[in-house]
Amino acid sequence: MLTSIKERSRARSEDARHGPNQGALRQTLQVILAGGTPDVSMLDAEDRALVAPLLDRLQSLTDIKVDAEGMAERLDLYENHSGVGLWDAVLYNGDAFDERSSWAWSNEIRRQLGYTSERDFPNTVEAWSEKLHPDDAQAAEDAFVAHLADRTGKTPYDVTYRLKVRSGEYRWFRDAGNAKRDANGVATRASGSLNDIHEIKTAQDRLAEYADICETRLKAMADTIAHESRGLSDTATNLVHTADTTRDSCVSASDELSKSSSNLETVASAAEEMSGSIQEVAHQAGDTQARTNEADTASQDARQRVSELAAAAEDVAKTLEVIKQIADQTNLLALNATIEAARAGEAGKGFAVVASEVKSLAQQSAKAADEIAGKLTVMRDATESSVGRMEGVTKLIGQVSELVTSVSAAVQEQSAASQEIARNISEAAASTDSVTGNVAAIQHDAQGLTDAGRQVGEASGTLQDQASALASEVDTLIANIRHQGSR
After folding, report:
1. Alpha-carbon distance 313 to 307, whole Å?
2. I need a surface site. Which of 68, 124, 221, 436 has the fewest CB within 10 A?
3. Which InterPro entries does the annotation name (predicted)?
4. By CB neighbour count within 10 A (0-12 exposed, 13-18 middle, 19+ buried), where does 196 fall?
């Protein structure tokens, strides 16, 4: 069309030999060729009719250009700045894994996986499939293949799985998409989005774990409440029984207290008499202790005298030994004198008689000394025996003294205790009337306790109903928590 206009313009210029509209038309065509919007007011009607289709086509091209620029800008935003990882696959014969199928991964997907360009994460299906977690790979691929194979398009593709990111760790992602199909239902193209949901998935897992913990603990608490409420019901029954028993016992106790009041007065009188008797025993124990002390002193003196006698006997024994030695010497001298008198003959006869007498006296003296020594030995043995026995007596008297002292102290304590018992019994007798009044009050309170026990039993039944309701509420709460965690 533009060529036709140029030819016609050239012809008209030859005919008009450079008429006045030639420059306006040329200028208009130059503006159109430059892609601008010309001013057609200077053109005649025929030229405007020729230029009008060009202006309409130029406006369409301008609109298409604007739309293309906007689409390119949106596509750049979607791919690089939307925060959503987009992917696209043109399928060969509906097979996503055929080598003739072409794939395109957005830069946002690469960024989520830790990559920066197509160089380190190429536009191939293997770039995705090789990074699937071993436990998730088969399920993810099967879900994608099932979506593409269903020619009705009713099988959705929306799965979660783990992908290995560039750092080497596995993170959770959600992958969702749809396929475009031909007239026979064969998938020709598939597009979708891949988003990092690791924090959400981790939080959901923690929420599920928390739900399990809450379920265990809350159900345990509900069971405990139910158990305790049943125990409370049993306790209430026992309480009512105990209260009835207490009331009956109070009636019997009141009668017994009336009898005890009279008995306590009798016991108080007997206690006072016993206290007087114990005081008399205490006085006699004091006198006994005094006599024991005197006996102990006397035994100490006797022991001293016997000891002195034993010492004197030892001295006499020593003196007798000297006497015996002198008698032996004398006997020896008399023997020598007799021998010498025999040698002297007649002249020594008189001296021999004297020597014989001296010898006889010496023998008598030695015999007497032996007899005295024997007596002293007997006396010394008796003395030593007496000393030992006196020591035994002294020890026994000391033990008796200690025993009497202990008895005296115990009697004094018993005396004080008996006086305290008498006082307490008197006070108990005085308090019996007050106790009788208190027993009557207890009897009244026991009736109130019976009523309270029945109320507790009713409250226990209500508590059991509430425990059942709580268990139902716990089930509902846990179900809601798990539902929220799975969303």
Report:
1. 10
2. 68
3. Chemotax_Me-accpt_rcpt (IPR004090), MCPsignal_dom (IPR004089), PAS (IPR000014), PAS-assoc_C (IPR000700), PAS-like_dom_sf (IPR035965), PAS_fold_3 (IPR013655)
4. buried
Structure tokens at 135: 């436990």
* Residue 164 phi, psi (nearest 5): -80, 125
Rounded CA-CA distance 463/156 in Å is 49
Q: Tens digit of pLDDT for each residue in 223-267?
A: 777 777 677 667 767 766 776 776 676 666 566 656 656 665 665
Contact between 91 and 187 under an 8 Å Cβ cutoff? The reply is yes
- Give the pLDDT confidence of 320-373 residue by residue, as tens digits: 677 778 877 877 877 787 787 777 777 776 767 777 777 787 778 777 777 777
Tokens of 373: 């020594």
* Amino acid in the structure at residue 75: L
In the structure encoding, which two tokens stand for residue 53, read together? 């289709």
Query: What strands lie across the sheet with 187-196, from one edge to the other?
Result: 102-105, 85-90, 187-196, 170-181, 157-164
DSSP 92: B
Both tokens assigned to 163: 């992908």
In angstroms, the CA 293 to CA 356 distance is 63
Place of tokens 């006699």: 284
Is residue 88 within 8 Å of 189, Cβ to Cβ?
A: yes
Yes or no: say if 76 and 187 are a contact pair by the CB < 8 Å rule: no
